[in-house]
Amino acid sequence: MGLKQIKKICCIGAGYVGGPSMAVIANNCPEIEVNVVDINENRINQWNSKELSNLPVFEPGLKNIIKRCRNKNLYFSTDIVNNIKSADMIFISVNTPTKTKGIGAGQAIDLKWVESSAREVSKYASGETIVVEKSTLPVKTAAMIKKILINPSSKNNSKKFHVLSNPEFLAEGTAINDLQKPDRILIGGENSFAINALKKIYLHWVNEDKILETNLWSSELSKLAANAFLAQRISSINSISALCEETGADVNEVALAVGMDSRIGSKFLNAGPGFGGSCFKKDILNLVYLCNHYGLNQVATYWQQIIEINNWQKNRIVKIVVEKLFGSVADKKIGILGFSFKADTNDTRESPAIEICKELLEEGAILQIYDPKVEKEKIESELRAYSRKWNYANSVFDAAKSSDAIILLTEWQEFREIRWEEIHEIMRLPAWIFDTRNICNVNRMKALGFCLWSLGKQN
Ligand code: UDX
Ligand code: ADP
User: Fold this and answer.
1) Fewer beta carbons below 10 Å: N end or C end of the chain?
2) Which residues contact 216 (CB under 8 A, 6 or more apart)?
3) Would the CB of 269 count as within 6 Å of ligand 1?
4) Annotated catalytic residue: which of 279, 291, 357, 440?
5) Which of 3.50.50.60, 3.30.1330.40, 3.40.50.980, 3.40.50.720 would CATH assign to domain 216-459?
6) pTM for the whole thing?
7) What is the pLDDT of residues 135-144, one digit of tens each?
8) Could you confirm whether 279 is annotated as catalytic?
9) Taking Cα atoms as reference points, which of 72, 52, 74 lies closest to residue 64?
10) CB of 341 closer than 6 angstroms to any ligand 1 atom
11) From atom 28 of ligand 1, which residue's Cα is the shortest distance away?
């Protein structure tokens, strides 16, 4: 039996993945109605906001698509039930954080949001429905989704489900471009009609040779493995950055030389304050959990080390700052430039800035935090315990005022254009700049009278 034409899509979860990925589908497939639903009413209101700068997700290029498609073939709503009922295809794009309690706490993924979405689908879907896992999930989650969907009570009715794994590889800050021009589209599944129905959607804008079909488990594991490999590159170059500081090698030069080997490649070799984002740590922890579960303890230890190096990198930056500021930062003002985990996103999940700020606050520093896109409330929720010791700065200037040091943590373009001569005038001397992203020109900063510490360089 062939499947009906996909006319209506429902995406459960209007977050950083669900929102942009559905916007791009709607933009490329005008004949398909795309409904993005969420239990969070506030988030849906933000997506529906007339003022496009109020969208809950900041991504270059997103506003334009929303402007074009919203309320034409792209809708944001809290009506989960009716949108599930009428959908031919349902994407599950809900949060999948690491478990904080119980078995697997600190490593395994908390599947409660996936489970409750699957239960809603099982209850309300009608006819033949394709259910697509979009969120990054542990291997064999599709089996759980299937068990929930194909439960005995729905056996005798007309409902029929096909489960596919279609992990999203977008990186935040470049999400629209990544979605529009993906390196590959991965579709894992068993039913060729379902696979073809999803493939047909992507063929609107993606070449067939970029669409890879695998079994369900390969698809689920590929996503975890890809993120683990990417994070591994960052921990590798970050470990080398420390060695560069000791030896006089320059980490940028080393990265360039290493990356010119075509077997290694030049991307993802920027040393920095440690990787952040919602995926890398979570996915590696999940991989570690899976390996231990299957008795592959050496493999688990191998991947765990990527996270250890990442924690160490954040920690050693704090130690260096304290050491340079004469062994104490107590009651000293420090400007923090950048709180998001990378440039061009307002997302702060697992941002290295969080850990670095917390440690500095523990040391008694008074932080003046500025980020071009992260709102005060988000920073507040991360640093709740330290509310009296930090201020939200409205500009680079505010963050720098009367400070003993500035720590550059995110590579925002705005920070590449800072008029450092003006900043020098408003800081307390000696004015320290800690550049963890290699944004500053060493000679120029020194000529301006700054004390500069650059990551991965002998200082
Ligand atoms: C990542 C994957 O890239 C993406 O494919 C997956 O779907 C989700 O996880 P994301 O976390 O959004 O995407 O951003 P990414 O560009 O991968 O950056 C992750 C972190 O690594 C950031 O904190 C970034 O600053 C850091 N990073 C990245 C470096 O420190 N150096 C680099 O060379 C690259
Ligand atoms: P991601 O980065 O994976 O997109 P987010 O946390 O940004 O993660 O988004 C996930 C969204 O999924 C949140 O807005 C959350 O409210 C929503 N969500 C979680 N569970 C459900 C559910 N059962 N039904 C609808 N939406 C849900």
Assistant:
1) N
2) 142, 143, 163, 164, 165, 188, 189, 190
3) yes
4) 279
5) 3.40.50.720
6) 0.95
7) 877 788 888 8
8) yes
9) 52
10) yes
11) 268
